[in-house]
Specification:
- The structure is a single chain.
- The chain is built from six helices and three strands; from the N terminus they run H-H-E-H-H-E-E-H-H.
- It is mostly helical.
- Helix 1 crosses helix 5 and helix 2 packs across helix 5.
- It starts with 14 loop residues before the first helix and ends with a helix.
Amino acid sequence: MKTQQPRILPTLPCACANFRRAARALTQLYDDAVRPAGLRVTQFTILQALSLTGEISHGGLGALLVMDSTSLTRTLGLLRAKSWIEIRSGSDRRERLVRLSTRGHKQLERATPSWQKAQSRLLAAMGPSQWRALQQITDEVTNRAADTQQRSMQ
């Protein structure tokens, strides 16, 4: 069997453009993986985050995922309509607490093996040292960009 050479794309002059292009490629890979379970990777990510955090405020979940409130609200609405999450009021009427429902846990369990296959294929293609570097650089860029954004708003 002939091995296919990886496609080499030019580096774009903007960090955001490069990360968005990478994010689109990753989204396509993971969407294909979780689609048979009836999910998009954005939905899977929220279910996975809720599995890790337990009950969390809407704002806390948005901060964790660095996701704007409008997009998060829209996606949570879809997940709630499928009974995969539960939302309740917090001690302050304005606070909304989100958690994974029993059906959400089952949906996450159903989708995880396909997600894990995609994750393993990507890790194998990159190799362990590049994988660790990817994790470190994405964490660093996320933190630095969020800090820079917060400072510019002050």
